[in-house]
Amino acid sequence: MKPQDIMKEKGSKWIFGYGSLVWKPDFKYKRSKIGFVQGYKRRFWHGDDFHRGDKDKPGRVVTLVQDHEACTWGVAYEVAESQVEESLRYLDMREAVAGGYALELVEFTAREEKALQEHSHKLLALVYIATSDNPIYLGPAPESEIAAQIVLCRGSAGLNMEYLVCLAQFMRHCCADVEDEHLFSIEAAALALVL
Ligand code: SIN
């Protein structure tokens, strides 16, 4: 199934956030669940020349990269049918037009279902993902270089450092038992540069 197919269906829609959407959704939704998508790793490999950087100094923000062995934790938001048009219009401007992300579909498992081993209760969720064919995609780099870039960048939404720290805080507070080596080592390297 493609995002366009699910958009044609009636009823509420689920949207999975794994970057700024976990701590700053700013769109209308009726409830949210913490959980994960299997088969993707979260990486600071996307460039951002609007929200957290500019044309001269693009910031580094996260995208999802396929990896069978990985899973990425975040928040799925249920948007009521009556809110879908407004919320998706807002998110398309923020994520697709300004951010260079494209809409995809993923299977989301909520934390409570993981605990019950009830993987049959996966939800189909819309997600914004940036891929290497995007002109502002930056790709892999050593974590120390990613951190050094993040501490220098700022965009219309604020410091790239704020984006990094808020995402790390979300993982520490809401997903305390989940390892996220990439995120936490970039945060540690960035904090070491500024403190
Ligand atoms: C985004 O949602 O990708 C950008 C918003 C932000 O960085 O605060």
Commentary on this structure:
The chain is of the alpha+beta class. It has a single domain, classed as Roll (Hypothetical upf0131 protein ytfp), CATH 3.10.490. Helix content is 33%, strand content 33%. The protein is built from six helices and seven strands, in the order αβββαβαβαββαα. The strands form two sheets. It has a five-stranded mixed beta barrel with strand order 1-3-2-4-5. Strand 6 (154-155) and strand 7 form a beta hairpin. The radius of gyration is 16 Å and the shape is globular. The model has no long low-confidence stretch (mean pLDDT 95). The structure holds succinic acid. The site of succinic acid has 12 residues, from helix 2. Catalyzes the cleavage of glutathione into 5-oxo-L-proline and a Cys-Gly dipeptide. Acts specifically on glutathione, but not on other gamma-glutamyl peptides. GO terms for molecular function: gamma-glutamylcyclotransferase activity; glutathione specific gamma-glutamylcyclotransferase activity. Keywords: Lyase.
